[in-house]
Amino acid sequence: RISLLPILLQAIRRTPWLLNGDAVAKRPDSDLLTVSLPDKRRVGLPFDRLKPLLATLGELFFRDPLAGSEPLRLPRADAARLQTLAQGPALQWHGGEQLREFASRLQQLPEQSISAPSGLLATLRPYQLEGLAWMQTLRELGVGGVLADDMGLGKTVQTLAHILSEKHAGRLTTPALIVMPTSLIANWQDEAARFAPELRVLALHGSKRRALFSQIGAHDLILSTYALLPRDLSLLSAQPYHLLILDEAQNIKNPRSKAALALAQIQANQRLCLSGTPLENHLGELWSLFNFLMPGWLGDSKSFQRDYRTPIEKQANTQRLAHLHGRIKPFLLRRTKEQVATELPAKTEITHWVELTTAQRDQYETLRLAMDQKVRAEIARQGLARSQIVILEALLRLRQCCCDLRLLDDHASDLDSRDSGKLTSLLEMLEELTAAGSRVLLFSQFTSMLALIESELQTRQIGYVKLTGSTQDRRTPVEQFQSGQVPVFLISLKAGGAGLNLTAADTVIHFDPWWNPAVEAQASDRAYRIGQDKPVFVYKLIARGSLEEKIQQLQQNKANLARGLLDNEGLGQLTLGEEELHALFAPLSKL
Fold first, then answer.
1. How far is it, in rounded angstroms, from Cα 429 to Cα 15?
2. What is the pLDDT of residues 36-56, one digit of tens each?
3. Burial track 395-409 (b if 16+ CB lie within 10 A, e otherwise)
4. Cα–Cα distance list, 563 to 152, 510, 520, 583, 585 (Å)
5. Measured between alpha carbons, how far is 372 from 375 in angstroms, rounded to an integer?
6. Bridge-partner residues for 42, per DSSP?
7. Helices 388-403 and 358-382, interaxial angle, to 10°?
8. Nearest Cα to Cα of residue 493 among 508, 514, 478
9. How do 268-274 and 241-247 pair as beta strands?
């Protein structure tokens, strides 16, 4: 028996094309590679046995690996490739036991079985259990990963299950820190309270957060934001963390951003990224995520540019692409809605909470105080039954304030999309959804709001069509959307809430909630109807702490309110008592 590696190395030095995977693949299996043995004999080795080994070596060492006489070394980042060698000749390994064990565990990642932790108040679907097992195994191996599931597939609940599993296993001796866009703080608070109530959650958000930093060690889950992280770095980095998790991780796609640089200074046992769009424009964004997760895994920025970005993006080098894919595959888990459609209900409804901007909150409170006095005075004068017009006007003005301040004042030329928390959140959603190939129906009661959204889509060069009461030709925009010419359909609820068949859509967004749930559901069913072959996701954008949230709560508790409130033809069967009025005109609640 003779060691094959020195013989192959000699052959490779003599004929370097053996490291060209494409060239090797084209050789017939029956061809022989003639090599010299140490005793000077020459033998022919069949290519069918050598191809797996040569292909792997070629991928591992595509950049001048044979310079000098140093032995070949396998980087840990390429350990997953060891498993492909099993397809070739029987190999006898010398050393590298830990590396080969690491490779074996990576290969088995999709095959792990696991149960959801006790205390998780959710039934995880099979693909979500797979995600939990994946995160748990990465933690055992001491590496990070990117959970890149499509929007709406439950990245949050999978992550909470992972954190809860760590707590039950006694490993959560230091907190888990999750960094996210400001608009998602309330979502994480709600989801944690709903699905994992035993987790002690601390949100470091708002002007009074400084007083809370001393409490970090007493909590399981710490929430911070990309905007605040650089400011709070000295206090946050003083505490080690068991987990450091980035939600909407594409926020650090620029590795030189303040948030990305600050995150590199935080110590954690495991790092994870959550992002439905880990790669938006170029491979450098993916490098930035992995530079956060496992610095050095994809080399430094300059070598990554030389070895991957330039060959793949500019030269369409399939060998380099295959190499990069093999290196990151175990550490990036992505499932699309189409892949897991059999595990999903036909329609999934999601409440997407939105934070009002400071300007909106100030205007809301000013309006609320004025309208509260006006409504109470009218009711005292005429009684509730005869005060419907005043009540409707007051609620309408507050709803407009939640959407965009420009709906209240047509002359507010000094305002833009950044002054609307809801419009900002919507545009982030649309960019992510359209980048992922989703087709979106966007409903609003206010045609003036649709006009503002339309302007922002034009700025971002996102294709759309629009249908309102003033649309003369309804057929053309429907056909354009159904045929795939544009990804977004803007629809006023009154004009397009019925009578349309838009099965090309897989996502419905209600920008401003329609207070009669039956009308809202009818609008959603423009996409969810016979002929639809995709799961449909329905998002409701609700301004946190506002009238919109209070209506949601009242809808759950008051069937009459849910059926009759604010359908523009009148309050219908609604019977408002003193308690309901007090709730509707209550001050904005605070986080």
1. 52
2. 888 888 888 887 777 767 766
3. bbbbbbbbbbbbbee
4. 28, 18, 11, 18, 20
5. 5
6. 36
7. 180
8. 514
9. parallel
Q: Which residues contact 289 (CB under 8 A, 6 or more apart)?
A: 146, 249, 250, 252, 253, 273, 275, 278
Give the CA distances from residue 343 to residues 126, 133, 338, 488, in Å, rounded to whole numbers and listed in that order. Answer: 7, 17, 10, 26
Q: Could you report the per-residue pLDDT of 278-318, keeping only the tens digit for each?
A: 776 677 888 888 889 888 778 888 888 887 878 877 776 76
**What is the rounded CA–CA span in Å between residue 121 and residue 102?**
33
| 414/419 Cα distance (integer angstroms) | 10
Higher pLDDT, 346 or 259: 259
CA neighbor of 495 nearest in space, from 564, 570, 444: 444
Instruction: Lay out the sheet containing 440-444: strands in order across.
Output: 347-354, 536-543, 507-510, 440-444, 488-492, 464-467
Query: What are the φ and ψ backbone dihedral angles of 273, each rounded to 5 degrees?
Result: -120, 140
- Identify whether the C-beta of residue 143 lies closer than 8 Å to the C-beta of residue 210: no
User: Given the structure tokens 């299950």, which residue do they identify?
Assistant: 161
- Which residues share a beta bridge with 464? 488
Q: Is the pLDDT of residue 357 over 60?
A: yes
Higher pLDDT pick, 278 / 92: 278
Helix, strand, or coil here: 70? coil
Average pLDDT, the chain: 80
Residue with tokens 């946190």: 544
| CA-wise closest residue to 75 among 106, 99, 107, 104 | 99
* H-helix or E-strand spanning residue 459: helix 447-459
Closest to 560 (Cα-Cα) out of 513, 512, 516, 497: 516
Q: What angle do CA 157, 161, 166 make, to 5 degrees?
A: 150
pLDDT tens sequence across 524-538: 777 876 567 778 889
- 192, 163 Cβ separation under 8 angstroms: no
**Confidence (pLDDT) at 564:** 28
Longest pairwise C-alpha distance within the chain? 112
pLDDT at 271: 94
